[in-house]
Amino acid sequence: MTRVQFAIAQPEAVSWPVDFTISERSALVTALAPRQLSAPLRAARRQLRRFLAPLEDVATALGLPESSRQRVQRFVLLGMLERDTAWGCWDATTWIEVAHSAGFYRANVLAVAARLGAITGRDLVRLCGQPTNLARRLFGRPALEREVGRVQNYLQTVGYGSKAGNYESLVAAIATLLIQAGNADLTAINLELIESAYAAQPSGSAAGTAYFRIAHVLHGMGILPRGIALRRSLYRPLADVDPEWAGWCARWRSTSTLSQKTIDAVYNSALRADAGWHATTQMFAARRGGRETWRASTSQP
Are residues 151 and 117 in the same domain? Predict the structure, then answer.
């Protein structure tokens, strides 16, 4: 299977531009002037070629159309003018700021920065949203759909329905893992990566469930040596739950012969019901006390 690399290697004989001359800065202003005439614009872009050529090559490799490539270049040039620095010396935070200013073209700018090696996969996942859209820009839609399809096919072979792999949370989780791995291939996902992603999700969340399911799919496919352990989030007696009621619930839970999943559900519901009833009675008591205080203050002696 052909692998799609996340970032391109910088040629040894070529270095990304880290500064610009006075004449290049003047050309930058000319290139960004609104409604600029064609001749001055072409002359300015020729003078800025060492800044634009790497962006053009990477954007072309990503399969971006010409209009998108030009918009990416314009937003990068705007970032250079506003910060008075060349894009070759930008760190990940600066690239992300420039990408946010690009609006609709945000994912395109991030994809170009990632392919240039200016942003790591973990930075993208940590600081940016829309992992599915970003993965399509980085690796191409066919590559992402191929890997998602592998997970979907496996789920169906073990008894899941045809729609089991179409959930947005599952597709987003696969995209996130591929971005972090820096490769559009499920075999690039290791156990440490998926355990870290799973641990970062709230217990019981759709994203957490998706990572748990993907881990066991990859284990079944022989990619991971094992699955990951399921975190059980059991409800603990709250401060406003009557201790006697909490004790009765715990006694029932320890002696019930129902399935563990049913026991947990009933136990949690019983505790929440008591907590809710306690809060409701306190609210009505407070209201009743407030009315009595008001009547006492307004009654005539």
Answer: no
